[in-house]
Specification:
The protein is built from 2 helices and 4 strands; from the N terminus they run E-E-H-E-E-H. By secondary structure, it is mainly α. It has one domain. The chain has a two-stranded antiparallel sheet with strand order 1-2. The chain has a two-stranded antiparallel ribbon with strand order 3-4. A hairpin with a 7-residue loop joins strand 3 (about 30-35) and strand 4. The protein is extended, with a radius of gyration of 19 Å. The model has no long low-confidence stretch (mean pLDDT about 80).
Length: about 90
């Protein structure tokens, strides 16, 4: 959503995509969990409503279209894991 290509967003929604637009404006949401003594936590799955289904479908398309680009960027940015040998005295 925040990736630019040629100075323009890679994903643009047509003004007639009202269901997706409303979902992005807050109607596609995750239920807040009430857990005492912790920071805000949310369910791992979205509330199932009329906005969740189009957004789930858009996620499937996004993974197919942008998935390899995201994976390669994550691999480039991943911290290098040093290999340590255990020294036994």
């Amino acid at each position: 959503m925040n990736t630019l290509r040629g100075g323009k967003p890679q994903l643009q929604l047509h003004s007639r995509c009202k269901m997706l637009r409303r979902g992005f404006q807050g109607r596609y949401q995750f239920r807040k969990l009430q857990v005492a003594g912790t920071a805000e936590r949310y369910q791992e799955t979205a509330d199932k409503n009329e906005y969740s289904h189009p957004h789930d479908a858009l996620q499937y398309v996004g993974v197919k279209v942008f998935g390899s680009a995201v994976r390669s960027r994550e691999q480039r940015l991943a911290p290098v894991q040093a290999q340590y040998e255990r020294v036994v005295a």
